[in-house]
Amino acid sequence: MRTEMAVRQIASGTNALASSIVLVCRKREETARSVTRREFINALHREMRPALEKLQSANIAPVDLAQSAIGPGIGVFSRYKSVLEADGKPMTVRAALQIINQELDAFYHEQEGEMDSGSRFCVDLFQQFGFNEMAFGEAQVLATAKNTSLQALADRRVLQAAKGRVRLLTREEIPDNINRKEECIWLLTQQLAHRFEKEGVKGCARELAFMYSSNAENAKALAYRLYTVCERKGWAQEGYAYNNLVVSWPEILSMAASIKAEAPEQMAMDLGTL
Predict the structure, then answer these.
(1) Overall pTM surpassing 0.90 (yes/no)
(2) DSSP secondary structure letters along 207-242
(3) Is residue 17, in this structure, part of any structural domain at all?
(4) Which domain holds residue 143?
(5) Measured between alpha carbons, how far is 235 from 161 in angstroms, rounded to an integer?
(6) Per the structure, how many domains does the chain have?
(7) What order do you get walking across the sheet with 159-162 strand by strand?
């Protein structure tokens, strides 16, 4: 629920929230039963994914998603009279929150697993080394495990592999020209983030107007994932780029729709229907 306006007037030096969180509480059913830890985890796994997909589709900012995920997670936990640990003691709220965070991680990993092998490799590399160098041998082992090729990624200027060292190329180093049928979601996400940094909403909208919608949504999903990595690594400036892209996504899509409506012939040619 967004209740603060970007144009509000506040005193100089005053901290202010960009959004608010409203808690809706209801009494637990009197017939609520106790369940085991395993039953709780199974219910959480079953219900958290659609809830998280809904939060992402509602364009909750990456910086707020972890907090927002607590709602549906605690909703599952609190519906039971108690959740019993292996020793028969009731599970604490702290322990429940840890499990909820684990389910959020699992959700990100599932989304990552649906991407191309090159992107999965790049995400792993990013988590471990950021944009810093690593030994070629280590990178080769990881690439083999992900069923991808270092040389192929180097040829596409996704990474640099030379003199026994490998590193991911930064957004400033990758190709600026975006292939609207791009299959490497890592590359597409970095290009869109860079385009947003340089040209804002309009620059990204021109690309998304004639892009496969699945590619665009996968890029948005990866931006969520990369923000989480940055947050845990303390890479605030890098995470800022992904958060900004996602926050502006509705505005980008709206402008893209307007561009598409004004150029239907171009859309048909780009999608290969003419």
Answers:
(1) no
(2) HHTTS-HHHHHHHHHHHHHHHHHHHHHT-HHHHHHH
(3) no
(4) 117-168
(5) 24
(6) 3
(7) 134-135, 165-168, 159-162
